[in-house]
UniProtKB/TrEMBL annotation:
PANTHER family listed in its UniProt record: 2-OXOISOVALERATE DEHYDROGENASE SUBUNIT BETA, MITOCHONDRIAL, 2-OXOISOVALERATE DEHYDROGENASE SUBUNIT BETA-RELATED
Full protein name: Transketolase-like pyrimidine-binding domain-containing protein
Catalytic activity: N(6)-[(R)-lipoyl]-L-lysyl-[protein] + 3-methyl-2-oxobutanoate + H(+) = N(6)-[(R)-S(8)-2-methylpropanoyldihydrolipoyl]-L-lysyl-[protein] + CO2
Gene: BCKDHB
Keywords: Oxidoreductase
Known cofactor(s): thiamine diphosphate
Signal peptide range in chain numbering: none
Coiled-coil boundaries: none
SUPFAM superfamilies documented for this protein: Thiamin diphosphate-binding fold (THDP-binding) (SSF52518)
Ranges for domain Transketolase-like pyrimidine-binding: 107-266
Length: 266
């Protein structure tokens, strides 16, 4: 077989670029060696660190004894631009700083949510809040005092049935009223998956825009308990974030909690 070729001999025999590893000499030292196209392409990919041909270009041709190195052609500029438009569309839009501040009150995140719910009930006479244990204030105390302030017809408990809670909210929303449904823990939302994804999110499309659930808000706290294991500490938001017809909001500040809503079916 003889000793391996030196890099310059390897380059002249194969037409290979100087940067190729010297291991190519093992392939080149026998001019009659026939290398299978698939095996050679895989070897070249490993040696050169090439990506898939469909991404960076295409392999032109590979011969046996001659062993011409594959050439890569860059993808079209039009294709690159189209791909960039699809994957790089995010625009950061921070909330503007207020010109002046009014009267302020110190509160935690739960109290900010209570304030937002209070404002909704005060401004919208059709708004109702319902869910498991919301009448006495909820397990996170986000509805404290609202039943006493607005009455049992607007803030009330429901049975332990998440599918029924969301279904009830859909019925209220399609009549034009504002429904604010609470799922006690986000982990409990899975029984209501069909109502949310196949009913609420698709109601406008299914009815030809005669009805919609745009006035339905579903609150589902998650990450609030660090020791709840499989029924109290899950984060199922990704199951809903990619569903058409749902607007998903992850509230991270007190200000967002007071101003924004999580709406379904819009």
């Amino acid at each position: 077989m003889g000793p391996p070729l030196r890099p310059n001999q390897c380059r002249s025999r194969l037409g290979a670029p100087p940067s190729l590893p010297a291991v190519c000499g093992r392939v080149a030292r026998n001019p009659g060696l026939q290398v299978g196209m698939a095996a050679f392409a895989a070897t070249a990919g490993r040696l050169l660190g090439l990506r898939a041909a469909g991404t960076e270009g295409r392999l032109l041709r590979l011969r046996g004894a001659g062993l011409q190195w594959a050439l890569l052609q860059p993808a079209s500029a039009t294709g690159d631009a189209a791909q960039r438009r699809q994957v790089a569309h995010f625009t950061f839009q921070p909330d503007p700083e207020p010109q002046e501040y009014g009267q302020t009150q110190k509160m935690n995140l739960f109290q900010a949510i209570t304030s937002a719910l209070d404002n909704s009930l005060a401004k919208d006479p059709t708004a109702v809040i319902f869910g498991e244990d919301v009448a006495f204030g909820g397990v996170f105390r986000c509805t404290v005092g609202l039943r006493d302030k607005y009455g049992k017809d607007r803030v009330f408990n429901t049975p332990l049935c998440e599918q029924g809670i969301v279904g009830f909210g859909i019925g209220i929303a399609v009549t034009g009223a504002t429904a604010i449904a609470e799922i006690q823990f986000a982990d409990y939302i899975f029984p209501a998956f069909d109502q949310i994804v196949n009913e609420a999110a698709k109601y406008r499309y299914r009815s030809g825009d005669l009805f919609n659930c745009g006035s339905l808000t579903i609150r589902a706290p998650w990450g609030c308990v660090g020791h709840g294991a499989l029924y109290h500490s899950q984060s199922p938001e990704a199951f809903f974030a990619h569903c058409p017809g749902i607007k998903y909001k992850m509230l991270k500040t007190h200000e967002e909690s007071r101003r924004r809503e999580t709406k379904v079916g819009t």
